[in-house]
Design brief:
The chain is mainly β. It has one domain: PRC-barrel domain (SH3 type barrels, Roll), CATH 2.30.30.240. Helices cover 12% and strands 39% of the residues. It is built from two helices and six strands. A six-stranded mixed beta sheet has the order 4-3-2-1-6-5, with no helix packed on it. A hairpin with a 2-residue loop joins strand 5 and strand 6.
């Protein structure tokens, strides 16, 4: 599956409740060397309440300039959360199904999630 196929896909909890849509992905560069960088692996998916374009990193960092853009993009990212790869039960039929015990993390970057 290509990552762009997952973007915009609905995310469903194990109970069947619709939680939002995939708006971004988190990759970790911790695999064996692949050229100049380490190989990337999918760390998790960011789920947002609305299908919008990129948050440009404002939802996961303390970037606050330019102030109007930062404020608007953080407002638009409200309610978004990160679901780690092990918490995803299936990616089928353009739907992301979560495991029953899936944890919703803040989309802000945190070293403890890696």
């Amino acid at each position: 599956m290509i990552l762009s196929d997952v973007m915009g896909a609905p995310v469903i909890a194990a109970t069947g409740k619709r939680l939002g849509v995939v708006v971004d992905a988190r990759l970790a560069l911790d695999g064996p060397p692949d050229g100049v960088l380490a190989a990337a692996r999918l760390h998790g998916l960011v789920v947002g309440r609305h299908a919008h374009g990129s948050f440009m990193g404002y939802e996961r960092t303390n970037v606050n300039s330019p102030a109007l853009i930062a404020r608007f993009l953080r407002w638009r990212a409200r309610g978004s959360f990160l679901v780690l790869w092990p918490d995803i039960a299936s990616l089928a039929d353009d739907v992301v199904q979560l495991r029953p015990d899936a944890t919703q993390y803040s989309p802000k970057f945190d070293d403890s999630q890696i």
